[in-house]
Amino acid sequence: MSSARVAEPGSRERLVAALGGNALLQPGEPLEADVQRTNVERAAGSLGGLATDHDLIVTHGNGPQVGLLALEAAAYTKVKPYPLDVLDAESEGMIGYLIEESLRKTVPDRPTATLLTQIVVDPSDPAFQHPTKPIGPLYASAEAQQVVTALGWTMAPANGSYRRVVPSPEPREIVELGTIELLVASGTIVICVGGGGIPVVKGDGGLRGVEAVIDKDLASALLAEKLGARFLLLLTDVDAVVRGWGTPQAAKIGHTTPKELRSMHFEQGSMAPKVEAACRFVEATGGTAAIGSLDDAGGLVLGTAGTQVSPKGS
Predict the structure, then answer these.
(1) Of 17, 160, 256, 297, which is least surrounded by CB within 10 A?
(2) 10 — pLDDT class (breaks 50, 70, 90)
(3) Closest by alpha carbon to 107, among 189, 168, 21, 203?
């Protein structure tokens, strides 16, 4: 760690910033380390400004990365492919390292730490019987069928192509919450709950990993609630949530409430998880959640950009 100025406990408002996949990869970009590093440096530039006045906690998605790790594991046939919980941990460390590397350059006066985070889920969650979380690359129809035949993976339509889908159970409990609290209270910028965290279930022998990828927005909302954060930023590649997407009546939503958002319909594979995460956080804490572009992170905190979700709306 650098010789950083350590914040006094409680001296800053806490802010959880959840990075969408666009922070690491733009649509159509190859899953290469140099490409991801370049995009993360851009993200760190936006996040660095938030760290000046806030205790910053960063979370991130891992859909493309964990999918790539699964493909690499399946390609080497001399050993059994590693399970998803292990691959979740690998992607959490990999992406966390890239974010931490960039944040240390952007905010050199603040210590930064990446923490592998386990999230307890319910083994009886119906999500295990109905996989919906897309991971990995897009496939043409014939190629997708070949993968299904060879590996037994579940595929689902995705923008005219196909993509692997896996179970995405509800996050129930953050195992390392106490450690995260200690780091944040010391003034450390913490990167945690990456990819929604490592899914585990409780048993007689302790915790055991399971085959799943938790939604990072829902896990981030739980984290923000438990840490007593004032803000939850859900950073993506669009300016705001749009009402009536794809219709002539499409319109951006500025200031709104959970009740108003819950009366609208959003696509499950797109904006719905972010909307649900924002609603949960605001309903549980009375704080503010904002959904919008990574490049508008400062405006999202000030309330001048994106979709602002609060108890009273506008």
Answers:
(1) 160
(2) low
(3) 189
